[in-house]
Design brief:
Number of strands: 5
Largest sheet: 5 strands, mixed, barrel
Distance between the termini: 24 Å
Radius of gyration: 15 Å
Number of helices: 6
Shape: elongated
Order of helices and strands: EEEHEEHHHHH
Strand order of the largest sheet: 1-2-3-5-4
Structural class: alpha+beta
Helix content: 25-40%
Length: 128
């Protein structure tokens, strides 16, 4: 597994970044929280990662904080939630707000995240 990346930030958008690691540009899908914390282009960065392996692709997902990466892993373990939806949930609700919503079983708060319907929100609340 690729657990973390150190390198120079070459490109950054709200959902994706490219980090130059010794001449190799690694594309990483990121959350809005990570985007805000990455810093400026051409600066050295370090992010935690999760490598998602599919039949047709290897995709890297990056996180600024360990808590965010752990929630991502828990979310993709739920039936019907893939990496893209997990990233959308973590971008729509930062970890602390997501934790509070889960503790309070606040389904309405979860359904405000784009792509999360009532059934998915209930499943997330039940399983986490």
């Amino acid at each position: 597994m690729i657990e973390q990346i150190h390198g120079v930030l070459v490109k950054k958008t709200p959902t994706h970044c490219v980090i130059d690691c010794s001449g190799v540009g690694l594309g990483v899908h990121i959350t809005l929280n990570t985007f805000k914390n990455l810093g400026d282009l051409k600066q050295k960065v370090e992010i935690l990662t999760h490598l998602h392996v599919r039949e047709d692709a290897l995709q890297l997902y990056g996180f600024f904080e360990e808590q965010e990466r752990e929630f991502f892993k828990k979310l993709i373990g739920i039936s019907g939630i893939g990496p893209r939806l997990a990233m959308t949930i973590l971008s729509g609700l930062p970890v602390e707000k997501l934790r509070i919503a889960l503790i309070n079983e606040d389904i309405d708060r979860l359904t405000k995240v784009p792509g999360v319907g009532r059934k998915t929100a209930q499943r997330v609340s039940l399983e986490l």
